[in-house]
Amino acid sequence: MQKDVLLELNAEKVLNNLKEGKRNNGRKVDEYRKITIEKDLYKNAEGCAKVKLGDTEVIAGVKFSLGTPYPDSPKQGTISVGAELIPLASPFFETGPPSMESIELARVVDRGIRESKAVDFEKLCITEGEQVLIGFIDMYAINFDGNLFDASAIAAISALNEAKLPKIENDKIVEKEYSGKLKLKRKPLLSTFAKIGNVLVVDPDLMEETAMQARFSVATTEDNFVSAFQKGLSGAIKKEDVDNAIDTAFKTSKEIRKNI
Amino acid sequence: MTKEEKKIYVNKKGLRLDGRAVDESRPITIKAGVLKNAKGSCYLEWGQNKVLVSVQGPREALPKHIANPFKAIVKFTYRMAAFSVPDRKNPRPGRRDIEISKVCGEALEKSIFLEKYPNTQIEIWAQILDSNAGSRAAALTAASVALADAGIPMKDLVTSVAVGRIDGKIVLDLNKEEEDAPDAVDMPIAMMSNSKEIVLLQMDGLFSKKEWEEAYEVAVKGIEKIKQLQINALKEQFKLEEKEEKKTKTETKEKSVESAKETKTEKKEDKKELKDNKELSKAEAEVQ
C-alpha cells in the first residue's frame, strides 16, 4: 500500500490531541461515524448491501453456488468471504494479486460470522455428503476513509440478512427463482479500535489509522458473546484495552444492529 | 448444541484426553542455532508440532521502495510443508498462511530494536514440518529464539500459546482433537511477558467476557513457563559457542606464526564481534 506524506505529518497532531482527550474529528472515543445502509441494489446478487460509515464505503454481495461438502462435515454447506481493495477506492490501493491487508480483512469478517454460528450450515445442505450450497460473500471497497473492517462486516451481515436461497431442481440452480430467505441465527458485528498513544478509539478514520500503533477488532453478538478477536499492526495492547474494547463493542454494536 | 456421541474432554480428575491437566501445555523442546546457513535459527517441537525457523539479515531491504528510512522491516513467512497435515496441503501459500505470516511478523516487530537498522529487512522463515493444532504459536515462539540466536538486539522475547475452551472449561494449548470439540474456542495469544504487552491476539468461537478474562490468566501463566524454556535454549546455545570459541582461539595461537596472519585476525575479529552481539542479545533477553 502506498503512503501519503501529508497524512503521516498529521499523525503527530492526532496523537497530541488525544493526549488532551480530544479526537481530531470531534468524536468521543466510543463514538462511531454516521452509518447508512442501502439494500436491494443489484438484481443479479442473491443479497447485497452498500454501507457508508462516514466517508468509508463498502459494497457486499452474496452469491450461492453448488459444491461438495467437506468430508468431515457431510451435512453442512459453508460460506466463503472475499475482500477487494480496488484502486477506485483510494490512491493507496494497487492492482495485482490480493494484498495481505485484503486477505486479513476477509478472514476476520469471515471468522466473526462463521464462529458466531450466524448461518446454520446444515440448512445449506442439499444431499448429504454430495451436494451443498456455498455462500460467497464478496466485499468491494468503494471509498476508503479508514475502518474498512467494520464497514465490511456491516455490509457482509446486511447482505446475508437479505439473501434469498436459490431454488434447486435436478441438482442445478434455477435462475431467478428462490426457495426462501436465508435465516440468520445471530447478527455478529465487528468493532474495530485504534490504539494511539495510550488511548483506544473506536471506528478510526484514515487520519487516525495513520497515527495508530495497533489495531484491535472484536466481533460481538446480540446475546453478549464475542465471536472473534484480531489484533493487528506492530504495536501492543494490554489486557485492559481488550476489556475496554469488549465493553464498548457490546454497547455500540447494539445501536448499529438496529439498522440491519 | 452437543453432538451425537458425547466425548468427555476433561474428566472428573481434571485430566484431558491425553492425560494433561487443564493448565498444562504439551511437552516443548527448543534448540537454537540448528541451521548453518542462517544468521540465527531454531528448531522447536511442541507436542506433535515441529517447526524449523531461520533468520537472515538485517540486510538491504529489497525491492528498494519497501525500505523504511527510520527502521528495519520484518518479513515473516509461515509455510506448511505439503506433508505436515493429514490431507496433503497444496504447497502454494493459502490465505491462512498469508494471514498468519502477517500477524506473526507484526507480533515480533515490537520486540526488536528496529530503529537500529534503517533501510534494512529482517527475514524470518518458519517452516512447519508436522502439525497438530497450535502451529502458529510454535512458529512464533521459535522465531523469537531464532532472532536472539541471530544476535539481533531485542527488548524481550515474544512467547506465544493458544488457550481455549472445551466442554465449558478453559484449557491451555488445545490439540487437534480438542480443537474439533463442538463448543471449542481457540485463542492464540503472544506476549512480551516483562511488560505484559499483548503483541498477537486472535480468537474464534463464542466466548463470554468472563471466559476471556479467565483464558487470559491461564495464558499468562503458560507463557511464563514456555518463556523459561526459550531462555534455557538460548543459554544452552551460547554455552556451546563459548567452548568452541576457546578452542579456535588456542588453535589460532598455535598456528598463527607468519603466513596468512592478516586474514586470520580478521576472521577472529569477525567472530568476536558476532559473539559480542550474541552476548548482548542474551543479556538483553535476561535483563528483565
| CATH-derived topology of chain A | Ribosomal Protein S5, domain 2
Structural domain count of chain B: 1
The domain tally of chain A reads: 1
Globally, the shape of chain A reads elongated
Number of strands of chain B: 9
CATH architecture of chain B: 2-Layer Sandwich
* CATH class label of chain A: Alpha Beta
**Helix-strand makeup class of chain A:** alpha+beta
CATH architecture of chain A: 2-Layer Sandwich
Enumerate how many helices of chain B there are, as a single number.
Answer: 5
Uncertain regions spanning at least 5 consecutive residues of chain B? 255-269
- CATH homolog superfamily of chain B: GHMP Kinase, N-terminal domain
Largest interface: A-B, 34 and 30 residues
Shape of chain B: globular
Main beta sheet of chain A: 6 strands, mixed
* Structural class label of chain B: alpha+beta
Task: Describe the overall structure.
The complex is a heterodimer of chains A (260) and B (288). Chain A has 260 residues and is α+β, with helices and mostly antiparallel strands. Chain A has a single domain (5-257), classed as Ribosomal Protein S5, domain 2. Chain A has helices spanning 5-19, 100-115, 148-162, 206-211, 239-257, and strands spanning 35-39, 47-53, 56-67, 78-84, 125-127, 131-143, 164-169, 172-181, 189-196, 199-202, 214-220, 226-232. In chain A, strands 1, 2, 3, 4, 5 and 6 form a 6-stranded mixed β-sheet that branches. Chain A has a 4-stranded antiparallel β-sheet with strand order 10-9-11-12, with helices on both faces. In chain A, strands 7-8 form a two-stranded antiparallel ribbon. In chain A, a hairpin with a 2-residue loop joins strand 9 (189-196) and strand 10. In chain A, helix 2 (100-115) packs across helix 3 (148-162). Chain B has 288 residues and is of the alpha+beta class. Chain B has a single domain (28-286), classed as GHMP Kinase, N-terminal domain (Ribosomal Protein S5, domain 2), CATH 3.30.230.70. Chain B contains 5 helices and 9 strands. Chain B is globular and about 55 Å long. Classes of the chains: A alpha+beta (260), B alpha+beta (288). At the A-B interface, helix 2, strand 12 and helix 5 of A face helix 1, strand 9 and helix 4 of B.
